[in-house]
Amino acid sequence: MNDVIDAPMNALVVDLLAFLATGEKPYAEIMSAWRTSCPRLPVWEEANDRGFVERKIREGRQIVCITARGSDFLMRQG
């Protein structure tokens, strides 16, 4: 899979991954902050499609965390 995305989307995906790199977050919080209906800025969808984020169930709650692939991408972005 190619990690090249346009510059504005790349910057937003990096922001999302940096946010998640500080620790897992509740799914509802991520959806509130990052999901959009704007077809030009699908940040959550882009990160999810590229395997950079992962949803899990922990203690009965849905959480989102960065994947190893997402961490690697974030590190390569500086």
What does this structure look like?
The chain has 78 residues and is of the alpha+beta class. The chain has four helices and three strands; from the N terminus they run αβααββα. Strands 1-3-2 form a three-stranded antiparallel β-sheet. It is globular and about 35 Å long. The two termini are 20 Å apart. The model has no long low-confidence stretch (mean pLDDT 86).
Quick overview:
This protein has helices spanning 7-21, 27-34, 43-49, 68-76; strands at 25-26, 53-58, 61-66.
| Residue runs with pLDDT of under 50 for 5 or more positions | none
Number of β-strand runs: 3
Percent helix = 40-55%
Q: Per DSSP, what share of the residues sits in E-state strands of 2 or more residues?
A: 15-25%
Strand order of the largest sheet: 1-3-2
- Major sheet: 3 strands, antiparallel
Structural topology:
Layout: H1 7-21, E1 25-26, H2 27-34, H3 43-49, E2 53-58, E3 61-66, H4 68-76
Antiparallel strand pairs: 1-3, 2-3
Helix pairs in contact: 1-3, 1-4
Notable characteristics:
78 residues; alpha+beta; 3 strands; 50% helix
